[in-house]
Automatic annotation (TrEMBL):
Coiled coil start-end: none
Record key words, sorted: Signal
Protein name: ABC transporter substrate-binding protein
Lineage per the UniProt record: Bacteria, Bacillati, Actinomycetota, Actinomycetes, Mycobacteriales
Entries under Pfam families matching the protein: NMT1
Record InterPro entries: SsuA/THI5
Top-level taxon of the source organism: Bacteria
Family matches, as Gene3D superfamilies: Periplasmic binding protein-like II (3.40.190.10)
Signal peptide: 1-28
The species this protein was found in: Mycobacterium hippophais
Length: 483
């Protein structure tokens, strides 16, 4: 059995029993007039603009699922509950507040999660455990590096001597540092600036920095706003990336009913996103100011984020590599036991016997399906399925391939956003920001090939020398006559 599979349900159940006895005793004393039953305050830390955690943050708060669940709990046990929401720009300041016991439950990315577990374990009242995932990408494509559209950089090596904005201690920083190591690039050769994501985004737009290494959704937000282009996809590190939920064990053991309510509320919010990702994207946009087209890139069908609470076995690779990196950096101690930090007991209680099946399923819970009535082909292959959001439309339209999508765009009056999968990796892209090649040797409905980066297109061209670069407007125009 993998160490990360080891659970500690006996500890939790014992704590729950003791808590129940304590509550009963307190209620008895209250009835005698000796004690009052205080309101239980639940401090939840989240990152409103981090799309990968909206089911445990932005949307969870908006839908009031947790408050409603706790109201039902209070009606049954006679207690009062108050939820206090605290918004953070990244995982590092959230962890600082958990160490100070000012936050009870928090959500953050993989690198900050392990840092959180290592730093808090030194304090009995602050020690945390990882209890659920919010969203993930097994390829690792939620963290990316962008450069100004006018930059001559084609690879990470081209950033030598240049200024790079990131948030130290964040998932974006971890991805970038790992990418530098993977490509044998000395980090000392770069000028690293520690900036909040919003500050870095403004800096790259204003020309104060030469690159921007960040976590979801900032890289694609910069791209969508025509402030930069993708230089490096974090998926090339070959490390799964995810965000998750941590809780202070002292709080969890003292309030098991709150934890049950929290998990149920996150599940209800996750289910709502999966059931109607377009509506969820529009609501997140209204709450955060992030354009709905960007939110939908991540949480739409075949999107960059798979919203799933289960802690996948595939994360074991990430745990090992992330810990090794953080130990070298000094953010995590070498004796930090990840298996002891990860506890899916609450998930098993939530999903019951269905948990193992859910955990083993790594398909994106939302997928593009249907029939392409223009190309007259079925839609279903994630490596080809594409999608267009027409201006003024209440729903999107599917296309069987990127080439079929170009044909559909060519007949449209106005397009709000078009999404295609990268030819090599399958990650979801904005069609008008992709690097396009025309391959005359490919079948007619697959003749136009989109890529996330110029390096990706170069690699394809090396294997298919007949392929030529083509701009997006020309690809749209010429797709009408291809085949």
């Amino acid at each position: 059995m993998n160490k990360t599979d080891t659970l500690r349900p006996r500890r939790r159940r014992t704590a729950a029993v003791l808590t129940a006895l304590a509550v009963a005793g307190a209620q008895a004393l209250t009835g005698c007039g000796l004690l009052t039953d205080p309101t239980v305050t639940v401090n939840v830390g989240y990152q409103s603009k981090t799309i990968n955690t909206v089911n445990a943050g932005t949307l969870l708060r908006d839908r009031e699922e947790l408050e409603n669940a706790l109201e039902r709990v209070g009606a049954a046990n006679g207690k009062r509950y108050r939820v206090v929401w605290q918004d953070f720009s990244s995982g590092a300041p959230l962890t600082a507040q958990m160490m100070a016991t000012h936050v009870d439950i928090g959500s953050m990315g993989d690198y900050p999660l392990l840092t959180n577990g290592s730093k808090t374990r030194k304090y009995a009242d602050a020690e945390t455990e990882l209890i659920a995932t919010t969203g993930y990408n097994l390829r690792g494509s939620l963290n990316q590096v962008v450069v100004p559209a006018s930059s001559s950089a084609r690879t990470l090596a081209d950033l030598s001597g240049q200024r790079v904005s990131t948030s130290l201690g964040s998932a974006g920083d971890g991805m970038f540092s790992t990418a530098l190591q993977r490509n044998d690039i000395d980090k000392a050769a770069l000028q690293i600036l520690n900036q909040d994501p919003a500050v870095g985004a403004a800096a790259i737009d204003g020309g104060q920095v030469d690159a921007f290494a960040q976590f979801v959704p900032w890289p694609q937000l910069v791209i969508y706003r025509n402030q930069g282009r993708l230089l490096y996809d974090g998926g090339d590190n070959e490390i799964p990336t995810f965000h998750g939920v941590v809780v202070r064990k002292q709080f969890a053991d003292g309030h098991p009913e709150v934890m049950t309510a929290f998990m149920q509320a996150v599940k209800a919010t996750t289910d709502a996103i999966v059931a109607d990702p377009l509506q969820a994207a529009q609501r997140v946009s209204a709450l955060t100011g992030i354009e709905p087209e960007v939110v939908y890139l991540y949480n739409g069908p075949n999107g960059l984020v798979s919203f799933d609470m289960t802690i996948k076995r595939e994360f074991g690779t990430a745990f090992t590599k992330v810990k090794d990196f953080l130990v070298k950096r000094g953010s995590v101690t070498a004796d930090f036991d990840v298996a002891e930090f990860v506890d899916d007991g609450y998930l098993r209680e939530l999903f019951g016997p269905d948990y193992d099946r859910r955990r083993a399923d790594v398909r994106n819970p939302t997928a593009l399906t249907g029939t392409d009535d223009l190309c007259r082909l079925p839609v279903g292959d994630p490596a080809q399925a594409s999608e267009v959001w027409m201006s003024g439309a209440d729903d999107t339209e599917v296309a069987a391939t990127p080439t079929c999508l170009l044909r559909r765009v060519a007949t449209a009056a106005e397009v709000r956003a078009a999404y295609v999968p990268d030819t090599a990796t399958g990650i979801r892209l904005f069609a008008d920001h992709a690097v396009w090649l025309r391959d005359p040797g490919a079948p007619p409905t697959q003749r136009y090939k989109p890529f996330a980066t110029e390096a990706g297109a170069d690699a394809y061209r090396a294997r298919h020398p007949q392929a030529t670069t083509i701009g997006y407007p020309a690809a749209v125009s010429q797709s009408r006559s291809s085949g």
